[in-house]
Amino acid sequence: MQSIITLVLAALLGVGLAGDRLRDELVARLRREVGSSGALDVTVEPAAEPRGLGSLGRVSASVDQVDARQLPLAALVPVPQPRGLVGRIDSIELAATRVALDTLHASEVRFEAADIRYDLVRALGSGELRVTGLGQQRLTVGLRDGDLDEHALHAYPELQNTRITFESGRVVARASVAVIFAAFPIEISGTLAVEDGRRVLLQDAEIKTGRLELSDELRASILERLDPLIDLEETFDFPVPLRWESVAISDGRAEVTGVLETPAVPRVEPRFQPRERYLR
Predict the structure, then answer these.
(1) How far apart are CA 191 and CA 184, in angstroms?
(2) Average pLDDT of the residues in 86-108
(3) In the chain, what are the domain boundaries?
(4) What value, to the nearest 5°, has the Cα angle with vertex 113 and ends 109 and 115?
(5) Which of 89, 220, 240, 267 has its CA 20 to 30 A from that of 227?
(6) SS3 at position 154
(7) Mapping DSSP to helix (H, G, I), strand (E, B) and coil, where does residue 25 land?
């Protein structure tokens, strides 16, 4: 993403590509960076209300079938800069579909950021984009029915033929469990909640086993085995530190939402302080 936005800056600030060549080079560079052979679309818009040199509008990119570790998020983690000339981008949107996240595939990953500030001198001098600040920003992982099936296969091998769906605000896992020489159906359902920004927990859980009777101890053991349902740091294998904040479920879909963990901007006192100077 860093080199992509560098190309955008170079073109729109008059130090490099222009016109149709810009889009062609963006597409080629993005293909090389994310290694995608799927559909790709890149859009660059001028700022609706220019705020000086280096003002851009909306920069958006979408890519299909990609590994999460190849998503260009690292270039958007701000490097705080208390002083210096600043350029602005109104918004950046990155959308990816069919994203491989370690042991599962997410139907969609979407990153949105507004009021991006960057080092204008560095951009004009070397063509490098260094983000120095972000306004509102959000990363959303969209999961659809079946997206967690592969994860369940690796995380809970004792369950067979597992199918995980999202229904009426609850996650529902239907599977079979082998007991001696027979297999019995089992259904586990519950709501989801994010804990400590790192884990998704199964809450208000229910277990239905049909004809198979389970002791209270075994039920408790199964639920303990599902705690946490998803370790986000291990399973959502993004190349940047993230803090997950919420999970929402609707029919056929769940969304886990978080933000990039960004460093605080250091406070710098003004160089000229007449009161302190003359009171010495």
Answers:
(1) 24
(2) 87
(3) 2-135, 149-255
(4) 170
(5) 240
(6) helix
(7) helix
